[in-house]
Write a sequence for this structure.
């Protein structure tokens, strides 16, 4: 169980940034009980999950507030958590290029330093709240890069999220006029996941598998229901699951496990010869 | 410039281990000024230095108290900084197997996890004080693994040091010293004695790593360094020896680790293997 805190210079962001990286390696339980298979060998690569934080959060959240490391060890899945501030996973109009960072630079960096697979079928992205939006945004932005994406309690409808925040229905830290050149023109743009999905489909590009979950008492539940309806209208194949719960870490710690069950995981590393 | 704090389960130590791994990647300078280093090119590996702390220290020391990250970035050299408690990096008589950890488990782990070079000519080990001793000890025990070894103010004459009255020794708990050595009055001529290991290696005509040592004449450990150098001379083992001025402190090590990196055969690029 190799847990790594990594700080490196990001040309896309123009500053140094932190990520946490988990890579499964034989732990005391496996060694003592002779359970160790041959998964951690030279040349082997791991399936990898990019796991995204929500608003107000950073790269440390998932590790501190859930047991993601334990779940990754069980599934022999590498887990990478980046930081994007409150950017909503965009290249900010006034600010840093977070989308470029997460979509292009980070995967290239991770592949060059850590033993993770570079295949689409082994690369996944998931996140909570703003990160749920981020996961779907990345997957739809570059569908050739991700085998699947998952949203937990996701702010999937960015237009509605902005309206709700502006009308003080929900709290949010977002500077919409910094993130976007024209916040009023969001609907139908590439930041609008429903418009982006339609665009990719019209381009004939195969979308990654999509999983969506939300708590029935969550303030973002209605947004998720309307997103569900929109996916159906667009004709996207997706999995929707709702459970009792609110917008909190108890929900995310429980249902990230469900996400890992849903993902097409090999529960083993990928041998060099494969 | 990837600075990585790594925690993993070590089966040699039977507990979790912390390591700082520094891997040169595009820096702000490279980004602004351009650079010709082949970062990120598939299949290429990093020359690697295992760098050891001294007594009373741990894996964070080198990063916290020197500019090692900057110096290594300049040399395109990966640096692996483990913890060795106060063990001298030997397999303790009653305690953890630090030598096995350092010469076997950790390099194998690194080769599985990171793009570090495997060839002897691209693998180096160094350290300060107890870590200087540890570096030479590892280099003499596993000469086939390391191309070069560096000792800064090294605790090279471990037997002589046991009887020293400096606070570094008198403050080291007797119980801990009992755990490291079966009998710390009988180090001379044992596996923990690098004088003995050097003799044996010369007798066995082993191909030794290149050795570099530096020590300030005002350092309390200077005589131990002289002893080792004289021993090497007697055995006709060539050693690069910087015998200059300074005491047992980070100002000295910060300057001399940089000199040692200049001495190491760094390619200033990633390497093919």
């Amino acid at each position: 169980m190799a847990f790594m805190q990594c700080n490196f210079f990001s040309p896309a962001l123009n500053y140094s940034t932190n990520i946490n990286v988990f890579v499964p390696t034989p732990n005391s339980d496996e060694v003592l009980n002779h359970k160790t298979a041959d998964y951690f060998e030279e040349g082997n690569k791991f399936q990898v999950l990019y796991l995204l934080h929500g608003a107000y959060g950073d790269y440390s959240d998932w590790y501190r507030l859930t047991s993601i490391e334990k779940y990754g060890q069980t599934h022999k899945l590498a887990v990478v958590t980046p930081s994007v501030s409150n950017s909503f996973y965009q290249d900010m109009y006034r600010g840093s290029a977070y989308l470029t960072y997460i979509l292009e630079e980070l995967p290239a960096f991770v592949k060059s330093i850590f033993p993770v697979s570079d295949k689409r079928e082994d690369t996944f992205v998931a996140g909570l709240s703003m990160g749920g939006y981020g996961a779907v945004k990345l997957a739809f932005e570059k569908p050739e890069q991700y085998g699947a994406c998952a949203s937990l309690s996701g702010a999937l409808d960015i237009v509605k999220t902005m309206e709700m925040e502006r009308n003080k229905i929900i709290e949010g830290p977002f500077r919409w006029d910094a993130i976007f050149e024209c916040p009023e023109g969001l609907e139908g743009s590439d930041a609008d996941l429903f418009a982006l999905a339609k665009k990719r489909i019209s381009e004939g590009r195969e979308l990654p598998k999509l999983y969506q979950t939300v708590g029935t008492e969550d303030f973002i539940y209605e947004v998720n229901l309307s997103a569900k309806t929109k996916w159906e209208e667009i004709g996207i194949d997706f999995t929707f699951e709702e459970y009792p719960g609110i917008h909190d870490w108890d929900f995310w710690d429980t249902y990230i496990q469900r996400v890992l069950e849903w993902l097409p995981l090999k529960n083993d590393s990928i041998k060099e010869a494969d | 410039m990837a600075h990585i704090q790594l925690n993993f389960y070590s089966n040699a130590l039977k507990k979790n281990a912390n390591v700082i791994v520094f891997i040169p990647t595009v820096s702000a300078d490279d980004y602004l000024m351009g650079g010709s280093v082949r970062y990120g090119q598939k299949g290429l590996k990093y020359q690697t230095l295992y760098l050891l702390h001294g007594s009373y220290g741990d894996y964070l020391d080198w990063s916290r108290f020197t500019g090692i990250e900057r110096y290594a970035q300049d040399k395109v050299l990966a640096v692996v900084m483990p913890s060795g408690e106060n063990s001298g990096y030997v397999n303790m008589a009653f305690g953890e197997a630090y030598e096995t950890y350092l010469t076997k488990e950790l390099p194998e782990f690194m080769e599985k996890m990171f793009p570090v070079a495997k060839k002897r000519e691209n693998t180096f080990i160094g350290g300060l004080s107890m870590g200087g001793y540890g570096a030479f000890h590892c280099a003499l025990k596993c000469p086939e693994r390391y191309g070069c070894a560096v000792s800064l103010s090294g605790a090279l004459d471990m037997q002589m040091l046991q009887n020293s009255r400096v606070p570094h020794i008198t403050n080291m708990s007797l119980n801990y010293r009992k755990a490291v050595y079966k009998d710390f009055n009988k180090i001379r001529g044992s596996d923990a004695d690098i004088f003995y290991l050097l003799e044996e290696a010369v007798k066995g005509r082993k191909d030794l790593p290149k050795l570099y040592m530096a020590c300030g004449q005002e350092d309390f450990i200077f005589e131990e360094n002289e002893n080792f150098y004289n021993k090497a001379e007697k055995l006709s083992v060539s050693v690069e020896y910087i015998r200059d001025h300074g005491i047992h402190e980070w100002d000295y090590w910060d300057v001399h680790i940089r000199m040692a990196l200049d001495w190491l055969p760094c390619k200033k690029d990633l390497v093919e293997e």
In short: DSSP finds ten helices and eight strands in chain A.
